[in-house]
Every structure is written in structure tokens, then in C-alpha cells.
């Protein structure tokens, strides 16, 4: 349902040009929770923003259900974008609007009838578990609650796809897990395809069925999470997963501290 073909992105700036994406080919099927992982600067944000054309690719095609977004008019693009909600690390809520009003905002923009908006907002508040906070403003909410509002707002127009740009990176591990659980529920109950970018391996492990590994603007490895994580083929994937194994499971050898004291490392 989402297909990127030969997508490249060149940023041209006074300070110098950056080729942020190089000949990307990516297929996301309906129902996937597709994770794109890589270190800082790998091109993850650029890639996810190319999917809804927030960042127009320099070359290549972005096909959503067979429609190439790079070739349609601005009006048609606006219409296509309603099929794709997006959430961000920094939530991007409207600070002068309360929870209900934030969720209603995309529907107001498309001139939906008031009664329909009320019903939809009510359902979404239930879905994200924020009925009791409906009149609160973003400043009165925790990070996790803000992300729930952002998720409800992203789903307001009934999209088929949800794009998640490091949605849990600013949250503590427990809140992060509760947001990931919510995303999985949305994928399973509402049949919404999710594409997410993250630098956190545990996010991929927790909810994604597929993964692509991005390095310096190129996809170096992709596949089912179960396979890629069990038997990574590319040294860079190994490095990313190896680091995690070190953090999580490998006790730091005593020699490390001895050597540190004596400057022997
Ligand atoms: N508007 C821009 N103008 C010039 N260069 C840019 C622009 N946006 C991103 N870049 C460059 O493109 C490359 C990829 O950036 P991008 O933000 O996509 O990476 P990322 O993997 O999302 O990184 P992070 O995890 O740190 O957000 C980087 O070298 C970055 O400096």
C-alpha cells in the first residue's frame, strides 16, 4: 500500500549539500507495523516525511495505494494526506486549545458537521483513555497524556496509515510502553498500518513486525523483525543490536575498572 521507489533526497544549503536519502526502495503492506531504525543523522526523519510529502523527495516515486504523490496537484495531495495521520516526539499540540479542541481540529479544517465532530471526539477520547481530561490544556498534561491527545488527533480523520516520528523517545520507559501498547491496539483493532522511526531497538522489538535499517541514507538491511534480530546480515545491524546486548545483558568486567584506574585502557 505504501511504496517508495528510487527515492533520493538532496538538501541544498549554503553550508553544503547533504544527500540524506540514496535510492530508497521500501514496500509497506496493509496491516504492517514497519519500523525504520538507525542512528542520529541516518535519514530517518527525512524518510518518514517523504511518505506524506512533508519533505518532497528530490527524485523517485511515493506511491500510496498506487497513486504517486509526487505527481498530483496540491488539492489532491491534501486529500491523500487525510489518509495519513502523523505523530511526533514533541507532540505538536495547539497550546491554546484544550484536549477536545485539539482532537477536533483536523475535522474543523475539513468542515465536518458539529454533531459528527462531537461523536468522533467522544469515541477518540475513549480510545486513548482521556475522557476525564477533555477540558484540560496541553500544559496541564503529562508527556504520555499529550502523546495520547496527539494520537487521537492523528486518527480524527480516519486515516489508513499512522506515521510515528520518534513518538516515545521523550517518555520514560513505562509510559513509553503504554503508548506502544496503544499503537498496537490501534493497528489491530482499527486495522491501521503504522510506519515508525526510532533509534530505540526496544521499540522495534516491542511492536514492529518488519524493520528496515537505515545507515547514511541507505537501507542496509530489512525483513521480519524476528529474522533480522535473530540473524542480522549486515555489520551495521550487528553493531546496533550488539550495543543493546552490551547494555542489557553483559556485566561490565572487573578488569575494565582496574584498567580505568591505572589508565591501562
Ligand atoms: N532541512 C535540512 N537542510 C539541510 N540538511 C538537512 C536538513 N534536514 C536534515 N538534514 C541533514 O540530513 C541528514 C539526515 O537527517 P535526518 O534528520 O533525516 O536524520 P535522522 O536519522 O532523523 O536523525 P535524528 O535521529 O538525529 O533526528 C543529516 O545529515 C541532516 O543534517
Automatic annotation (TrEMBL):
The keyword Ion transport does not apply. Gene3D superfamilies: P-loop containing nucleotide triphosphate hydrolases. One of its GO terms (biological process) is amino acid transport. CDD domains: ABC_MetN_methionine_transporter. Residues 2-241 form the ABC transporter domain. GO terms for molecular function: ATP binding; ATP hydrolysis activity. SMART domains: AAA (SM00382). The keyword Translocase applies. Keywords: Amino-acid transport, ATP-binding, Cell membrane, Membrane, Nucleotide-binding, Translocase, Transport. One of its GO terms (cellular component) is plasma membrane. InterPro entries: AAA+_ATPase, ABC_transporter-like_ATP-bd, ABC_transporter-like_CS, MetN_ABC, MetN_ABC_transporter-like, P-loop_NTPase. Belongs to the ABC transporter superfamily. This is D-methionine transport system ATP-binding protein. It comes from Natronincola peptidivorans. The lineage of its organism: Bacteria, Bacillati, Bacillota, Clostridia, Peptostreptococcales.
Amino acid at each position: 500500500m505504501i511504496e517508495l521507489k528510487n527515492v533520493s533526497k538532496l538538501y541544498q544549503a549554503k553550508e553544503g549539500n547533504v544527500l540524506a536519502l540514496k535510492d530508497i526502495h521500501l514496500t509497506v503492506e496493509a496491516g504492517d507495523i514497519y519500523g525504520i531504525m538507525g542512528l542520529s543523522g541516518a535519514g530517518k526523519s527525512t524518510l518518514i516525511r517523504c511518505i506524506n510529502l512533508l519533505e518532497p523527495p528530490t527524485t523517485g516515486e511515493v506511491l500510496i495505494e498506487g497513486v504517486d504523490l509526487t505527481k498530483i496537484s496540491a488539492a489532491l495531495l491534501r486529500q491523500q494526506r487525510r489518509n495519513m495521520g502523523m505523530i511526533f516526539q514533541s507532540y505538536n499540540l495547539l497550546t491554546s486549545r484544550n484536549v477536545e479542541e485539539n482532537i477536533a481540529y483536523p475535522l474543523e479544517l475539513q468542515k465536518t458537521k458539529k454533531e459528527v465532530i462531537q461523536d468522533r471526539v467522544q469515541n477518540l477520547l475513549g480510545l486513548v483513555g482521556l475522557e476525564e481530561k477533555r477540558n484540560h490544556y496541553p500544559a496541564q498534561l503529562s508527556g504520555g497524556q499529550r502523546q495520547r491527545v496527539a494520537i487521537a488527533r492523528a486518527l480524527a480523520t480516519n486515516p489508513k496509515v499512522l506515521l510515528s516520528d520518534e513518538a516515545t523517545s521523550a517518555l520514560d520507559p513505562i509510559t513509553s510502553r503504554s503508548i506502544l501498547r496503544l499503537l498496537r491496539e490501534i493497528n489491530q483493532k482499527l486495522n491501521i498500518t503504522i510506519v515508525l522511526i526510532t533509534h530505540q531497538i526496544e521499540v522495534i522489538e516491542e511492536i514492529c513486525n518488519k524493520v528496515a535499517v537505515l545507515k547514511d541514507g541507505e537501507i542496509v538491511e530489512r525483513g521480519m523483525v524476528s529474522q533480522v534480530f535473530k540473524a542480522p546480515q549486515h555489520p551495521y545491524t550487528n553493531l546496533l543490536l550488539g550495543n543493546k546486548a552490551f547494555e542489557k545483558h553483559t556485566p561490565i568486567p572487573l578488569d575494565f575498572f582496574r584498567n580505568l584506574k591505572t589508565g591501562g585502557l
